[in-house]
Amino acid sequence: MSNYPKEIENFHNTILKLMGIVSIESGIDSLEEVDAELLQISQFSHLPHAALLRTKGGLKNEVAKCII
Question: What is the DSSP letter of 33?
Fold first, then answer.
């Protein structure tokens, strides 16, 4: 049983039907505390660097959807 809501689980199952896809994970990252200094750390490499640098960091209540 997945810990994802039913809609997300259905999305994952649809993506898994694509040729070459063997696994999928997704989540939400808060960008509110992210600044240019944090973007240098590998754990933040999946975030939208150009957008975050343009606004000098995450905006209030800003999130990023991540699909791996």
Answer: T
